[in-house]
Protein: DUF2804 domain-containing protein
Amino acid sequence: MTTDEREITAPVDLCRADGRLEPEAVGWSRRPLHRSRIPGWGRTKRWEYWCVTTPTHLVALTVSDLDFLALNTVYVLEFGPDGREFERTAIVPGGPGTALPDAVAGAPGCAPVVVGPERPVRGQVRVEIRSEGTGTRLRARCLAPDDRLPVEVDLLVGMDEGHETLSVVVPWSERRFQYTSKQTARPASGTVRIGSRVLEFGDDAWGTLDHGRGRWPRSVEWNWGAASGRTDGRTVGLQFGGRWTRGTGSTENALCVDGRLSKIGEELEWDWSPEDHLAPWRVRTPDGDAVDLVFTPFHNRSVRTEAVLLANRTDQCFGHWSGTVRTDDGERIGVDGLLGWAEDVRMRW
Structure:
């Protein structure tokens, strides 16, 4: 094993009845096992973020409840100089109509999540997350911001039997903590329609989930990197985090190779230019060879928000990962142009 963190193997409550972190919840697991009911109100953040990629385009869907408001988003990016990019975000003050479950939305046995009107108009957004077989059905509707063309997302993200994912609790204190389930290398299929145009998601489409439930500090900074696909004859998922976990004793770092998870307990070393996010990034384990990768971006999704209760500076760069990783059993895997992203975020919320 490449971590001293405690592996959780049985269901556990995230919180005590008074909303404090349950000490037995601190650790990580290979599948979601935490019951993440968080009683009370204030500083609680809940979200489901899905990004489904292909070699030529991607779509990302977000449903989030920040206690004082909800943010529901559809983002589409077509790669290349003539590719289309747009984002439609519905801001819902107070968050009425956004009810996220304690479990991972879209997991078998979990009630569907549906937000927004069935036929959205103007800046409204509709998102549906439902269990379908062993996978997750993602549907969304909105109007494209520039030309108001109707946008329809209909994707199925599969989950192969025995496929392992990373779930982990990051404890800042007994009153501030985050439970996240990061799921990479899940095969996807379906379409995104923009007016009469259809973007296909076929054999080379991959879904990544960021599921979050927690109580956060007012201000925080983080790095997040992820990628999914086939490389060196293997199916590989990369999941890396940085900055926000420092000093907690937990990390959100892991590899998934052919469905088997290797947990990395070491904090990664992130080297990038905040002045030029499109310059190459390097991510590595400073005291070993579990991760030694270069990320080469080709597009920066830059978001700047300044509001009374919310300030967000996000640079989410899409690009390709190359280098080597090493699994728990010592096998070195060559990573050659694996499509994914790396981001630099500062949040006040």
